[in-house]
Each structure stands twice: as C-alpha cells, then as structure tokens.
Amino acid sequence: MDEARVYRKTAAGQIEVAARSGSLSLATRRVLILVDGKRSVAELAPLLPGEIGSAIDMLVEKGYIEPAGSVDAAPVAPAAPAASATVSPAPRTLSDVSDPSRFMSIDEAKRRAVRELTDRLGPGAEYIALKIEQCRGVDELRACLHDAERVLVNTLGERAAQEFRLALRRR
C-alpha cells in the first residue's frame, strides 16, 4: 500500500457512513469516516491507533473507498436542500456560525461538522459524530453542534471550539 496515496469515499462508502450497517468493525469504520479525499494514508495514520493498511485494503475491496484520482465511481450528488434549511449564503454574526444549516443544506452541514470534528479529535470524535449524523432537523443539529463545541472546549480549549465554528462558516 502506498502511504502517499489519497483515498475518497465512493457512493457506497458515503451510504455506509450514513447507514451504519454494522458490517464494519469499529476501527475500520473510523478509517472510513476519516477518509476525505484530501489526506494521504500517511496523514491519517497518526489519527488512528494501530495499522490502518489492512482497513484501507478492506475498504477498497468492499468498494467503500477509491483512490482520489479515480473516475470509476460517480460521486453522490448532495441532497437538495429543504426550503427551511437554506436561508442565506453566509452568517451575519459569529453566533449564526453554530447553525450552519442556515446557509447550507442540513446534509452538507452534518458532513462538514463530522469532518471538522474528526480532523480535530480523531477517533475521539466518534460518539458526537454519530449523534450529528443521526440528526433529522435543524433544531436537533443545532443542539448537537453545541454539544460538539462543549466537547472541543473540554478537550482542546476554547480556541479549538472557535476554530470549529469558523470552519463551519466557510463555504
């Protein structure tokens, strides 16, 4: 396995992250969650305990991930935003940042929040990431994002929580 290679989730991988079918071990699921099409295997390795090579190989074999340069699998089109889930292109104040669903679809907001949390907390983000993925509405997502901010404050400090809020704001 090439440690410099970058992988991305396929449509099947995105569905597996959302559906949590139970067909993957916890360690392999963590690898799948962290694969983002930007970081190489070498960059992901420090975020995960143990050897990730076998997990990467299994995810490729099952069709959940592919090399980022591949064009074999069509990307999943983002869900159409609900009318209530899109209001403006950018928040007006910092407090609006904690509600990314105000300026992007709720599915996009959940994906971005999970990605930002796993970037900061690695496997420690699993619990809150699962809660975010299960959110069905804006109010539920807002509550989970506040929980995520509290986790960041308690583990990494206020600055990390502020950076998280700002990251959710970026388009």
Spatial arrangement of strands, main beta sheet: 1-2
Instruction: Please report the total strand number as a whole number.
Output: 2
- The low-pLDDT segments are 71-102
SSE arrangement, N to C: EHHHHEHHHH
**Largest sheet entry:** 2 strands, antiparallel
C-alpha Rg (nearest Å): 16 Å
Topology:
Elements: E1 7-9, H1 11-19, H2 26-34, H3 41-44, H4 53-62, E2 65-67, H5 106-121, H6 126-134, H7 138-156, H8 158-169
Description:
The protein has 8 helices and 2 strands. It is globular and about 40 Å long. The longest helix has 19 residues, at 138-156. It has helices spanning 11-19, 26-34, 41-44, 53-62, 106-121, 126-134, 138-156, 158-169, and strands at 7-9, 65-67. Mean pLDDT is 77; it is low at 71-102. It is mostly helical and 171 residues long. The N and C termini lie far apart (33 Å). Strands 1-2 form a two-stranded antiparallel sheet.
Keyphrases for this structure?
single chain, 2 strands, about 170 residues, mainly alpha, about 50% helix
Q: What's this, in brief?
A:
This protein has 171 residues and is mainly α.
